[in-house]
Amino acid sequence: GRSLRAVLDASVAIPLLAGLLYEFVPTRYSAAAQHAFDQLRHHRVEVMVPSDHVEEMASHLYEAWSYRELVAIEPDLRASQNALVSHFVTMGPRLRRPEEPAEQAFTRYLAGFGFQPSLARGDFLQARIRLQAHITSTLARYGIQVERLFLESSAAIEAVRGELEQLDAGLASRQGPLRRAARPDVLLRHDARTIAWLDTRPVGTEIATVFCTWDRLIFELYEMAPRPWEALNPAQLGDALMLAAPDEDNGAPPASVLDVALSLADEDAEHGAQVLDRLVRIERSGDFDAQRIAEASAFKRAWLDASHRRPLEVAWAEWKQEHLLSHGDAPPSRKE
User: Fold this and answer.
1) pLDDT of amino acid 1
2) What is the pTM of this model?
3) Cα torsion at 112, 129, 277, 285 (round to 10°)?
């Protein structure tokens, strides 16, 4: 039969690496990543992460530092879109040493991925290069390859990018009051290059390729036209591998890990984490002193309890004017 190659994007590779370095936790992303990787190793499937997605992992790691003052007091961050923050908060006290402050434990946690606080005081691009190198070597320890994807022509990349931009605009228009901005240019470029590269894989060869992702945009694109590769989330990939070669349980199909993973969803935490993630992005500097932390938590509760006619960014600016600037707090500078 045909052999299989699994290509992981950052949405899968980050919770996978966090689980491998520390422990897997009861969230949908961590549980599914563990399931997929266990099956990939069992079947000796080649696993690869494109270098573009390792760059995203490094950026994710760098940005996690901005949450350092919030991880101790905001349990909703177990559902943060920053997978490292989510993983740390979900692990809870198991990672912390006796009497160790949460911020110190978080610093030690990020150091396991190669991050040091000194990197945040220097040039971002240089920091990202260092973090990429560390992540690449760490992935290699677990048998995961990192590969730079090359295409002879940029036309295919631009064509895919155009499709992704149209789909992204459609997805954004269907979201509620926490509607996100358009997907950043760099992420569109990474996704377009990966998909264009996947589209060039020869059909009918001895190697089948699976793109493993949680990205809804990728699945919408995959459904638009036949492609020479498969798109599966990690729970689906793990289930498919189990069904392809059942063990000594008389061939009985396994209980779907996708069902289990989805059952781990925590809607209340997810809504709270969406607000906090947006606040961290707005502030950018991550300099949350005690008062700003308290006001961010209060704003989150007020936002979730009310209906909204204004964008979150506007509401947060007005909240700060009322609750922070009245106490002598200087307006934050916004870094673009």
Assistant:
1) 52
2) 0.77
3) 100
